[in-house]
Design brief:
The complex is a heterodimer of chains A (237) and B (172). Chain A is of the alpha+beta class and 237 residues long. Chain A is built from three helices and twelve strands, in the order αααββββββββββββ. Chain B has 172 residues and is mainly α. Classes of the chains: A alpha+beta (237), B mainly alpha (172). Chains A and B meet through α1 and β3 of A and α1, α2, α3, α4 and α5 of B.
Chain lengths: 237, 172
């Protein structure tokens, strides 16, 4: 087959990835885009988020977790459905070592990235020293302004009360995704992690080269959401 | 700018974006799909690209070729999206749900674009931009963030690989 034949085929033959495009109508103006929620699939997605948030709030209320008032909007926490049976998420373990405290942990974030309305990163949680400890299976994450004002918070989707071993051979990754921020745009946002309601917040540095963690507004009539995965066991380097 | 002038300027900008969407929307969407995004993600990426272009033009950015600018921004959006999903592990689920045909189905002639799917990511994008979006090598280079000769080299290597793959199929 000659190059010319091949080029002719590339220009003329269909691809199964080329079919299915339907132009989504553009808003009347960019201002309208900021004020008007996008319809269709996004509305369905946000409806799902709201329903999930309601469920999460009920669960939180039943468990007696403390509620916090955000600066701008009513935040919701929604677990990301990405854990698979082979994802390596261990079950709760019996006691034998002490519960982790902030100084026991080395928490780092990958560079923030994302597109199409969401921003996300992956936290890596490893022991800071040789001391093994037990990590709560459900962690709390919040985003704050540079002044410490709360923007949004969320709980990871692990079992409440469960404990996970953290040692030189076992460390964890936690996915974080933030969507639809329609409040006043903060001058930067910082991620903080907390092990238990009474513990101090652990500040996690935003790596250089990250995308701005604050997501764009996709619909001011819908709540912002901070979605967290379950803690996923990672092989030690 | 008066209220009427602002409305007219907005309408003019929007009109240019609607025309670009009509002319290039399907190709932007197809590029996203060829880079591994789902149809829903491709929809979002196209919309985000067009809105970013609109915003840039509104803010007075000097953009000589809006379609090339759109492809470049779109490519970055798609790659960001792709990497982000890969980081949080969701790609594994997608691959299970939508297995890619990387090998040939016996008894079925290999469509040339199925063979493209087996190419490395950058070659795949270069071939798509060359033969579907009909961009010049200079523009392909701008989209991919490489020099024009490198873009030509990616396409050339891709064609060599495709000839081998399709030749093997035709001799079966």
């Amino acid at each position: 087959m000659s190059h010319e034949d091949l080029e002719r085929r590339l220009r003329s033959e269909p691809s199964r990835h080329d079919s299915g495009y339907h132009a989504v109508p553009l808003p009347a103006s960019l201002v309208a885009r900021e004020r008007t929620p996008r319809v269709g699939r996004l509305a369905i997605l946000l409806t799902t988020v709201v329903a999930g948030a309601a469920t999460a709030m009920i669960v939180i209320a039943l468990l007696g977790a403390p509620a916090e008032s955000p600066v701008g909007q009513e935040p919701v926490a929604t677990p990301l459905p990405i854990a698979s049976p082979e994802s390596g998420v261990p079950s709760a373990t019996p006691s034998g070592t002490g519960a982790c405290a902030g100084p026991d942990l080395a928490v780092t974030a990958e560079r923030w990235g994302g597109a199409a309305g969401s921003r996300g990163t992956t936290l890596s949680i490893a022991p800071a020293g040789a001391q093994a400890c037990r990590l709560p299976a459900q962690l709390e994450v919040r985003m704050t302004t540079v002044d410490g004002g709360l923007l949004i918070s969320g709980l990871s989707s692990g079992p409440a009360g469960g404990m996970l071993p953290l040692d030189a051979e076992t460390r964890y990754a936690l996915g974080v995704a933030w969507s639809n921020w329609c409040g006043e745009r903060p001058d930067g946002a910082h991620l903080e992690l907390r092990l238990r309601p009474a513990d101090a917040w652990i500040a996690v540095e935003t790596p250089a080269g990250s995308t701005d963690p604050v997501p764009p507004c996709l619909g001011s009539g819908e709540p912002t959401s901070l979605s967290l995965t379950e803690l996923e066991a990672q092989p030690a380097p | 700018m008066s209220g009427e002038a602002a409305v007219a300027a907005n309408d003019e900008l929007r009109g240019s974006l609607v025309r670009l969407q009509a002319e290039r929307g399907a190709e932007l969407w197809g590029l996203a799909r060829h880079l591994g995004l789902t149809p829903d993600e491709a929809d979002d990426a196209v919309q985000e690209t067009l809105l970013r272009l609109w915003s840039a033009l509104r803010d007075g950015a000097a953009i000589e070729r809006p379609d090339a600018w759109a492809f470049r921004t779109h490519y970055r959006l798609c790659m960001d999206r792709h990497r982000w999903r890969r980081r949080i592990g969701a790609v594994r689920e997608r691959l299970r749900a939508e297995p890619r045909r990387s090998s040939l189905d016996l008894g079925e002639r290999l469509a040339v674009w199925d063979a493209v799917e087996a190419l490395p990511e950058r070659q795949r994008a270069a071939v798509y931009l060359r033969y579907r979006a009909d961009l010049a090598y200079e523009q392909i280079g701008q989209v991919l963030g490489i020099a024009a000769p490198s873009a030509r080299s990616h396409v050339s290597r891709a064609l060599d690989a495709l000839r081998v793959a399709l030749g093997e199929e035709e001799t079966r």
